Amino acid sequence: MTEEREDSFSHVPVLLNEVIEELNIKSDGIYLDGTLGGGGHSFEIAKRLKEGGRLIGLDRDDEAIRAAKEKLSGFSDLITIVRENYGSIKRVARELSIEAFDGILLDLGVSSHQLDENSRGFSYSDDNSPLDMRMDRRDEKTAEDILNSYPEEDLERVIRLYGEEKFSRQIAANIVKTREKERLKTSGQLNDIIRKSIPEKFRRTGGNPSKRTFQALRIEVNDELSVLEDSIEDMVDLLSDKGRLCIITFHSLEDRIVKEGFKKNEDPCICPPDFPVCVCGRRSKGKVLTRKAIIPGQEELVSNKRAKSARLRVFERRL
To answer: What pTM was computed for the model?
Structure first.
């Protein structure tokens, strides 16, 4: 095993013990980590695999791919790493001749490296960061493009829906006013707009006032919620009998999509409730194993503050 360099792509795996337990790993099983990141979760999965076992790792971030290949180099005979979005899971499985997975994991958090690397533009803590926010730098659309081209009503919608920002209207209006004078290019420009748009008494509570708007832009740039919503059923369909889908979310919008998606696959019937028997023909694909989301324990919260909002939900396939 290679030792991870201090300057490498880093991401402390959240809810690691809980994920490993819930995946119920078989040594000869086939697993997929759809958000490979620095390879923390995958490393622990691979440790539990033996001959016949296989792990597929997906990520769309080129830096994550390089770091994961280094961290997981000791398991090269077990692991296949692909630079791809988990939304393409059906095509990836087909290309790799995989009919079913015994477990699938998604960790939807932004990595520590992405937050701390100023050139990526995910963080609001450095005023000189470019407004990029692309997880896959092969994509064309950046946060800068959105801020300088979206109509005011679309900016307001994105900030309100994806950032759950109560001052979205003021922020959107001030973005438009500012860009009429100069192109928005840096996080500092956007931070200034947000500070001017939110009354001082509201800026004093709830953490950094830029957090919600930056989150909204990141979601819009990477099309995160629609990819998640569109992929849940595909992932469920690719599970073997008793195979498990584990998804870690970090904000209420993601968690709601996962919760509703799991419920739909457990109970897909659309018949009116007063029908004596089901006639729609839709059958359950499995069972939700987490009626309440699994959250980090106190020890993890102390050691990793970025785990605070993590929520793990688990679905088990039943054929």
So the answer is: 0.90
For residue 307, give the amino acid letter.
A
Instruction: Check whether 9 has a pLDDT greater than 90.
Output: no
User: What single string gives the DSSP state of each residue in the chain?
Assistant: -PPPPTTS---PPTTHHHHHHHHT--TT-EEEESS-TTSHHHHHHHHT--TT-EEEEEES-HHHHHHHHHHTGGGTTTEEEEE--GGGHHHHHHHTT---EEEEEEE-SPPHHHHH-GGG---SS-TT-BS---SSTTS---HHHHHHHS-HHHHHHHHHHHH--TTHHHHHHHHHHHHTTS---BHHHHHHHHHHHS-HHHHTSSS-TTHHHHHHHHHHHHTHHHHHHHHHHHHHHTEEEEEEEEEEE-SHHHHHHHHHHHHHHH----S-TT-SS--S-----EEES-SS-B---HHHHHH-GGGTT-EEEEEEE--
The label of the residue with tokens 């087909």 reads 94
Whether the per-residue pLDDT at 142 is higher than 90: the answer is: yes
Q: Which of 230, 189, 229 is nearest to 213 (CA)?
A: 189
Mean pLDDT of the chain: 92
